[in-house]
Amino acid sequence: MGCASTTRALRKSTDEIVTSPFYQNQFTGFMLYDPVARDTLYNLNGSRYFTPASNTKIFTLYSALQLLPDRIPSLKYVLENDTLYIEGTGDPTLLHPYFQDSTAIKFLQNHKDIALYLNNFEDAKLGPGWSWGDYQYYYQPERGPLPLYGNVVTISNTDSLRVTPFYFKDSVISINYSKNRNLESNTFYYALSRNDTTEIPYRTDSALTKTLLESLLGKEISLTPKMPKSEKNIVYGIASDSVYKRMMHESDNFLAEQLLFLASSTLLDTLNSNAVREYMIENQLSDLKQPPRWVDGSGLSRYNLFSPASIVQVLDKLYQNTSRERLFTFFPAGGVSGTLEDWYAGNPDPYIYAKTGSLSNNHCLSGYLITKSGKTLIFSFMNNHFRESSSEVKKRMQLVLEQIRDTY
């Protein structure tokens, strides 16, 4: 079968599914692209705007790869008159429940007089368009300049009640309650009859950050209204790739948000995620055919608007400028890892490396597809405003992607 006839067959088989009655009352876009032939193989509503959900993290990944060094910038500091002046970079890994990084703590333990500057954060704790009712859930911690413990309280009850950070031990009330935390205060609810581990975002403020840092260091520190004008030095933490992989595999919203602040720390003296998004759109992404409405790093906001075509363009940039081996480790593999562990299984090897994006009534999948003939294709499959279960949507997506794998 020749290339042209193969493409025609692919388009016909895809049309039969995505134009079926199932799709009549929802909004669907699908673009399929061959990065070697530089050829668009299929395009349904590719230039239309969709709510991307966590497909937004593909743009965050690209921005981080463009702007961040190989190791996470953990702290900025100036040593002046025996006082160590420090400011946060937005590093999310410091004592994070998963990473447990203590690089900055070990550095600070070597200094007696420490002045903490927290006024470099020029953004909001919660992103625009985020659901206010989700303040209590693990996937929506507050954003900030110097996160500690992932800005969550981790509570477990195996042999006894364990609370991390320990500072909040007396703030946990052991009752059954419909909420995990008070809206306006750090009062948490966890019944002793439970035996699971839960992460609950805590409310952040400067005084609390100072207190938590003091308890970690075992000494008092001061808050300072300004940093010295001297050139700032940087303490570097864990490998950046490990943060990118965790963000993409687990669809971790907190890591995604903080990566944009980290990126802004390399561009500016302040932490402002909007400045990074504007910089990227004006520079590395200035050639996008449909510039997105891009309002956060995670995709939690329904204000985000992206087209399949722009997502495919960024995936292509990643493919052209990152080694295949490294790139594919960032994306969940179908049937194997992360958010794709239960879908798109290969036979025997994975054929999908992609990022999911889900909000209620929305499900998107964008990434790379490896065909049986050995070709690597780039795709973005976006489904908005459906009333059926997401599993029914995924079944049809899987059918489309399997046909492409087997025929192209």
Shape: globular
- Percentage beta strand: 15-25%
Number of domains: 2
Give, in spatial order, the strands making up the sheet with the most strands.
2-1-15-14-13
Mean pLDDT: 96
Into which percent range does the helicity of residues fall?
A: 25-40%
Gist?
The protein has 408 residues and is α+β, with helices and mostly antiparallel strands.
List keywords for this structure.
408 residues, alpha+beta, Beta-lactamase, five-stranded antiparallel sheet, five-stranded mixed sheet, 15 strands
Describe what you observe in this structure.
It is a single chain. The chain has 408 residues and is an alpha+beta fold. The protein has two domains: 3-52 and 306-407, Beta-lactamase; 72-239, no CATH class. The protein is built from ten helices and 15 strands. It has a five-stranded antiparallel sheet with strand order 2-1-15-14-13, sandwiched between helices. A five-stranded mixed sheet has the order 11-5-4-3-12. It has a three-stranded antiparallel sheet with strand order 7-6-10, with no helix packed on it. Strand 13 (352-359) and strand 14 (362-370) form a beta hairpin. Helix 6 (253-267) packs across helix 7. It is globular and about 75 Å long.
Task: Summarize the SSE layout with pairings.
Layout: H1 3-18, E1 27-34, E2 39-44, H2 56-67, E3 71-80, E4 83-88, H3 103-108, E5 113-117, E6 152-157, E7 161-164, E8 172-173, E9 188-189, E10 198-201, H4 206-217, E11 222-223, E12 233-239, H5 240-250, H6 253-267, H7 273-282, H8 308-321, H9 324-330, E13 352-359, E14 362-370, E15 376-384, H10 390-407
Parallel strand pairs: 4-5, 5-11, 8-9
Antiparallel strand pairs: 1-2, 1-15, 3-4, 3-12, 6-7, 6-10, 13-14, 14-15
Helix pairs in contact: 1-10, 2-6, 5-6, 6-7
